[in-house]
Design a protein that fits this description.
By secondary structure, the protein is an all-alpha fold. It folds into 2 domains: 162 residues, Cytochrome Bc1 Complex, Chain D, domain 2, CATH 1.10.760.10; 135 residues, Cytochrome c-like domain (Cytochrome Bc1 Complex, Chain D, domain 2), CATH 1.10.760.10. 31% of the residues lie in helices and 1% in strands. It has 12 helices and 2 strands, in the order H-H-H-H-H-H-H-H-H-H-E-E-H-H. Helix 10 packs across helix 12. The radius of gyration is 21 Å and the shape is globular.
Length: 347
């Protein structure tokens, strides 16, 4: 099946620098900050799972196919919905019985650049390692791995697709995981007004948004965690949200005080379309998110040292919201159809 990337790769390949000077009232550090948001030139793929068109197409098919759920009613796209910014719009992911899981569905946008452990608490060592848990979990897709491999092996079209992607017809867990991860690395944030501004179009965002950018990188310190083109440092921080037994990374690293209640920094791409917010969906709106940071969250020994009351003015809050709005496209994006020919060669 042919598929088309839209303008996502234009973000990666079309921008060559940062243009424009610092206007009146701008922070003198603005141009330096802008340089740190230049887009990457290619999508990274690991040496042990390099990109091929056949493998990516197999992964795309698997991602959207309910064949990987026990009763044939769920797929990866049940929770990672393309036109919901590759999340599900819920406070917490839905179980197959339509209850709530413990955590919110994370977006898959720019997952190729998510270094280090993945998941809100970092339980997955790589993107390849993620698929087995939701696939086999009784409350999620509820299909034991041997049954999944058996179903795919018995389907002549899947057997042929695995043979094409891996030069061998054997359907294995490792190949299933590799194909899904290859497709998911193609889920790249589309060009937003912010990207056009970074490319040099001064009229792409408002003056209020530019002031919000200065605040984001300056006094508010948001860029300390939400840094670079993907707006994440790929690390874990306690920002004063989790409570009780909801200890995040601390569950896996119980001897670390700093990691108690620490959760993975999410990307801010398409953030305006991805509420509610936080790992547990406990903050309903972006305005409420800013209020959380403004007051500094829950004060405790594990709280990140960079989290402290900001005492933002009403104008500063409005400017931050204006800036965050520039990180979303006007209509969102749907990458269910992508043309592999538009992608740069994998490194």
């Amino acid at each position: 099946m042919a598929w088309k990337v839209g303008t996502a790769m234009a973000v990666l390949l079309g921008f060559v620098g940062v243009g424009g000077g610092v206007g009146d009232g701008a922070d003198p550090r603005r141009d330096g900050w802008r340089a740190t948001y230049r887009p990457p030139a290619t999508i990274p793929f690991p040496a042990e799972n390099p990109y091929t068109p056949a493998k990516a197409e197999l992964g795309r098919r698997l991602f959207f196919d309910p064949i990987l759920s026990g009763d044939g009613t769920r797929s990866c796209a049940t929770c990672h919905v393309p036109n919901l910014a590759w999340g599900d719009g819920r406070a917490r992911a839905a179980t197959r019985q339509q209850g709530d899981m413990d955590l919110r569905t994370p977006t898959l946008l720019n997952i190729a650049w998510q270094d280090g452990p993945l998941g809100w608490d970092g339980k997955f060592h790589s993107l390849e390692a993620v698929a087995a848990m939701p696939l086999t979990a009784p409350g999620n897709m509820n299909l034991p791995m041997p049954d999944a491999l058996g179903r795919l092996s018995a389907d002549p079209s899947y057997a042929a697709a695995f043979a094409t992607a891996f030069s061998d017809p054997d359907v294995t867990r490792e190949r299933l995981e590799a194909a899904l991860a290859t497709f998911q690395r193609l889920i790249v944030a589309d060009a937003a007004p912010f990207d056009r501004w970074i490319a040099g179009s001064e009229d792409a965002i408002s003056e209020a948004a530019k002031s919000g950018f200065d605040l984001f990188n300056g006094r508010a310190g948001c860029a300390g965690c939400h840094s670079g083109w993907s707006f994440t440092d790929n690390s874990f921080h306690d920002i004063g949200v989790g409570v009780g037994t909801d200890t995040g990374r601390g569950r896996l690293k119980p001897t670390s005080v700093a990691l108690t209640y620490a959760f993975k920094t999410p990307t801010l791409r398409e953030v305006g379309r991805r509420g509610p917010y936080m790992h547990d969906g406990s903050v309903a709106t972006l305005d409420a998110v800013i209020d959380l940071y403004d007051r500094g969250g829950i004060e405790r020994p594990s709280r990140s040292r960079s989290i402290k009351p900001l005492h933002l003015s009403a104008a500063e809050r409005a400017n931050l919201l204006a800036f965050l709005a520039t990180l979303s496209t006007s209509t969102g994006q749907d990458l269910t159809t992508v043309s592999f020919a538009e992608l740069p060669p994998a490194p």
